[in-house]
């Protein structure tokens, strides 16, 4: 049976790309879409930034036809600002609006946004209701198990947010206190999925980094789909590998060196197109090591790639990597 958010049909078991700050920009989303992601989200966008027309926040509203279905994710601590930001985000014509109630980072959570709303569910409900009423698009939510081990209240959150009209919920299997440490615990996610009152799709997030784990957790925790974040950085093939394993029960070969170089080149090209040469080259630097993880003696190339500013030279370096390691493979 297909999983649906509003009238968006996501197929039997969708794999979603998580919204990641400073990572999930259009160039990165492009390679993940090619890698098989079923649905993606923008980086999270500050509601205050949108209202003030801050350039960085506005630029994050860019969505492209090839990315669909795509959600714009917003966060904030003020209900009226979130309502206004929803109206602005709706004009960018995404397929849905997603609210971030999960970000654990200090400058978000300590300002009363993101995961901090797990400490004030009444306010979270009011804020969500304001967002739902401010758009004709489906509204979804991403959150965590709770603020800390003593306040795992996501079961109540799921019921109350469904009651005011959200159309899907993604749960990261950690508390805010855990940040990204320790292991994600999906048992509460399964309890919510088994709650007879819950009718909306429930997606699990946290620690899925291989096809076997995705298949095991799909069965064990009964979720409607999985959201993948860090495992896709420098490895957009994770989506197709998981799908292949679901369909055949067999592990797919990893990407060839040529595929790695091509994805890296594509990512760089899109980055330059979207952000301009200077920023495009600069922001790509955080990705090189991930694309070529595991290549022996890669460090000298990495050092060159992260220092180089000349675009042509960077492309030449990528060609050189391709030739050198391909030759080594032969």
Broad CATH class of the largest domain: Alpha Beta
Rg for CA atoms: 20 Å
Question: In CATH terms, what is the fold-level topology of the largest domain?
Answer: TIM Barrel
Q: What would you say the CATH architecture of the largest domain is? A: Alpha-Beta Barrel
Low-pLDDT residue spans: none
User: Major β-sheet, in short?
Assistant: 9 strands, parallel
Shape: globular
Q: How much strand content do the residues show?
A: 5-15%
The helix/strand class is alpha/beta
Query: End-to-end distance, in Å?
Result: 45 Å
Number of strands: 11
Order of helices and strands: EEEHEEHHEHEHHEHEHEHEHHHHHH
Number of helices: 15
CATH superfamily grouping of the largest domain: Aldolase class I
Mean pLDDT: 93
Helical fraction: 40-55%
Number of domains: 2
């Amino acid at each position: 049976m297909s999983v649906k958010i509003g009238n968006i049909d996501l197929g039997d078991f969708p794999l979603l790309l998580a919204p990641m700050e400073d990572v999930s920009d259009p160039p990165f989303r492009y390679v993940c879409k090619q890698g098989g992601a079923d649905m993606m989200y923008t980086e999270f966008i500050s509601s205050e930034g949108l209202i003030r027309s801050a350039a960085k926040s506005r630029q994050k509203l860019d969505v492209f036809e090839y990315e669909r279905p795509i959600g714009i994710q917003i966060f904030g601590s003020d209900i009226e600002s979130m309502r206004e930001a929803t109206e602005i985000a709706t004009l960018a014509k995404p397929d849905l609006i997603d609210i971030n109630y999960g970000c654990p980072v200090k400058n978000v959570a300590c300002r009363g946004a993101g995961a901090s709303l797990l400490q004030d569910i009444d306010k979270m409900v009011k804020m969500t209701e304001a967002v739902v009423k401010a758009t004709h698009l489906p509204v979804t939510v991403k959150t965590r198990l709770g603020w800390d081990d003593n306040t795992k209240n996501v079961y109540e959150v799921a019921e109350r947010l469904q009651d005011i009209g959200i159309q899907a919920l993604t749960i990261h299997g950690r508390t805010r206190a855990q940040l990204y440490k320790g292991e994600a615990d999906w048992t509460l996610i399964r309890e919510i999925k088994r709650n007879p009152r819950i009718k909306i799709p429930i997606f699990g997030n946290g620690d899925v980094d291989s096809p076997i784990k995705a298949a095991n957790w799909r069965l064990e925790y009964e979720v409607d789909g999985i959201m993948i974040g860090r495992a896709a950085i420098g490895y957009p093939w994770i989506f197709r590998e998981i799908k292949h394993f679901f369909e055949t029960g067999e592990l797919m070969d990893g990407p060839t060196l040529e595929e790695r170089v091509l994805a890296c080149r594509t990512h760089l090209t899109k980055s330059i197109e979207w952000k301009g040469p200077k920023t495009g080259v600069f922001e790509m630097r955080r990705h090189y090591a991930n694309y070529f993880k595991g290549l022996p003696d890669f460090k000298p190339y990495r050092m060159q790639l992260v220092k180089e500013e000349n675009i042509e030279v960077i492309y030449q370096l990528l060609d050189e990597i391709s030739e050198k390691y391909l030759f080594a493979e032969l």
